[in-house]
Amino acid sequence: EGLKIKAEIRDGKIFAPGVGDNTRNIEALLASIRALDHAKIKTAADLIFVFTVEEETNMVGVKRFVEENGDRIGQYVALDGGYEDMTYGGIGINWYRHHFIGPGGHTRSKTPPYSASLPLARSIERIYALELPKEPAVNLNIGMLGGSEVVNAKASDAWFTVDLRSTDQKLIDEFERKIADILGEEAARAGMQLRTELVGEKLPAAQPPGNRQSFTVRMSEAVHYAMGFENVQVRPDASNNANIAMLSGIPAISTGAAPCADAHALTEWCWIEPFYRGIKKIILLEVALAGLGNKE
Q1: Average pLDDT of 83-107?
Q2: Which of 181, 198, 215 is the last residue of a domain?
Q3: Which has the closest alpha carbon to 240: 37, 13, 29, 22?
Q4: d(CA 95, CA 142)
Q5: Is 296 a domain residue?
Q6: I need a surface site. Which of 44, 92, 145, 260 has the fewest CB within 10 A?
Q7: How many distinct structural domains can be found in the chain?
Q8: What are the φ and ψ backbone dihedral angles of 147, each rounded to 5 degrees?
Q9: Do residues 140 and 159 both lie within one domain?
Q10: Are 145 and 123 in contact (CB under 8 A)?
Q11: Residue pLDDT, tens place only, 213-245
Q12: How many CB atoms lie within 10 A of CB 150?
């Protein structure tokens, strides 16, 4: 019957899968459009409101938009995450699917050869034992696994995915090599073949020189302080559509309209009352970056 989602409100919060990432920001964007229209605000530069698809996978929507309209885009703001903070740089993201290929067989067939799940398990244990840098941080996750389709068969193809991220492209490349070495060693140890494929295109780290001091970033930071936010964190670790704009040479930031938690979980929630302040921040951000036009 499909997934049934019902929002629940309690203790000043709204609970629902996806409410924070990214329903809150879509609603904030729609509210800002209605407010600007109602107040008959005219900006010096055009404001283009874009709703894209596949941000959680390969960012196909924003890639197409930037590719087709890059010469028209002076600045880019992604409403994704954040509330009291904002980002000016983007992390690199590499997704892989690693396969161990063996002969397979029945549970009672001669062993060795083993199930291809054996080198998979050994590799996962070793990968998670890698010491990851904390500054700049390297993030690593093994989120999906697969093997035989029945209980009584040795897997002839056992696979798992790796999500590797960092703001430092050299560290991504370094850990890509370390993981590749582990996989090669475990495949040889088990007498099996190794096949690696990319799950979508690699997304390089987006750390454009000078972006931190650009008008877009400095004005956006000023807007946060003007709205009364204290200790505004300005970070270089976006993981959203702003990455694509930055990689294309477009000054960009990302921020959001409400404080939320438990993103990508069934327990996801957002505070309700701060959302009104967040919408005001988005409106001020739009006007401050585009500039006020002349009154007719």
Answers
A1: 95
A2: 198
A3: 22
A4: 10
A5: no
A6: 44
A7: 2
A8: -165, -135
A9: yes
A10: no
A11: 999 999 999 999 999 999 899 999 999 999 999
A12: 8
Structure tokens at 183: 């996989």
pLDDT at 295 over 80: no
My answer on whether 84 and 171 are in the same domain is no
Query: H helices of 16-160, where?
Result: 24-38, 60-69, 117-128
Instruction: Give yes or no for residue 150 having a pLDDT over 90.
Output: yes
* DSSP codes of every residue in 260-282: EE-TTSTT-EEESTHHHHHHHHH
Contact 289, 75 (CB under 8 A): yes
Give pLDDT, residue 81: 84
Query: Which residue do the tokens 């704009």 mark?
Result: 245
Do 13 and 158 belong to one domain?
no
| CATH number of the domain to which 148 belongs | 3.30.70.360
Give the pLDDT band (50/70/90) at residue 133.
very high
Structure tokens at 65: 């938009």
d(CA 121, CA 112): 16
Query: Which residue is associated with the tokens 């998670």?
Result: 128
Query: How high does pLDDT run on average in the chain?
Result: 94
Residues shown for the chain: 296
For the cut 80, the answer to whether the pLDDT of residue 74 exceeds it is: yes
Stretch (H or E) spanning 45: none
Q: How many CA within 13 A on the CB side of residue 74? A: 11
Which token pair is 237? 């670790």
Q: Is the same domain home to 140 and 237?
A: no
State how beta strands 269-271 and 13-15 pair.
antiparallel
